[in-house]
Design goal:
The chain has about 180 residues and is mainly alpha-helical. Helix content is about 65%, strand content about 0%. Helix 1 runs antiparallel to helix 2 and helix 2 crosses helix 3. It starts with a helix and ends with a helix.
C-alpha cells in the first residue's frame, strides 16, 4: 500500500517538477511558474528552490527504494538457493540410504545361499526391520530361489550313478 502511494506521489510529482523530474516534459500545470511577472523576488525564487529540493528528495527516495528492492530480491534469492540445496541434499541422502539398504539385503541374501541375490533382495520389503528374517521367510516360501546353482549341463555331467560312465563319455566313444 505504501509502495502504491509512493508511485502515485512520484507520477504526480513528475508533472509538477518541470525539467527536474524528466517524465513531465514541461513545467507542469502552469500554477507557480517562475515567470509570473514581477513576483520573482517576492517568493517565486523560494518556490522554485522548494520544488527543486522536493524533486531531489523524490529522486533520492526512488533510488533508495530501488536499492532496497534489489537487496530484498538478492536476499530472497539466496534464501531460496539454500532451501533448494537443502532439498537436493535430503533427496540425495534418501537415495543413498535406499542404496545402502539394498546392498545390505543383497549381501544377506547371498549369505543365505540365494541363487540370484539381486532378485531375492527385491522380494524383501523396503521397510523390513530385520532383512535376515525376511530372507529366511522367503527361503521357506520359495526354496527354489536358494541352493547351489546348477551346472551348464543341467546336472547330467560328472558321475551319473555307479556305472562310471557319463553321457559325455558315451558321446566321445561313439565318435571314435
Amino acid at each position: 500500500m505504501l509502495r502504491n502511494r509512493l508511485v502515485d506521489d512520484f507520477w504526480f510529482g513528475c508533472f509538477l517538477e518541470g525539467d527536474e523530474g524528466g517524465a513531465g516534459g514541461g513545467s507542469g500545470s502552469g500554477a507557480g511558474d517562475d515567470d509570473q511577472g514581477g513576483e520573482e523576488g517576492a517568493g517565486g525564487g523560494k518556490e522554485a528552490e522548494l520544488r527543486r529540493e522536493a524533486a531531489r528528495y523524490r529522486r533520492e527516495l526512488r533510488d533508495t527504494q530501488a536499492r532496497l528492492s534489489k537487496l530484498e530480491s538478492e536476499k530472497l534469492t539466496e534464501s531460496e538457493k539454500r532451501d533448494l540445496r537443502a532439498k537436493e541434499l535430503e533427496a540425495e541422502n534418501a537415495t543413498l540410504k535406499a542404496e545402502r539398504h539394498a546392498a545390505r539385503v543383497e549381501a544377506a541374501a547371498a549369505t543365505a545361499g540365494a541363487r540370484n541375490p539381486a532378485i531375492v533382495a527385491k522380494l524383501v520389503p523396503a521397510d523390513a526391520d530385520d532383512p535376515k528374517k525376511a530372507i529366511e521367510q522367503i527361503k521357506k516360501d520359495n526354496p527354489y530361489l536358494f541352493g547351489t546353482a546348477g551346472s551348464a549341463d543341467g546336472g547330467a555331467g560328472g558321475n551319473s550313478g555307479g556305472s562310471g560312465r557319463s553321457m559325455n563319455d558315451l558321446i566321445r566313444r561313439g565318435r571314435g
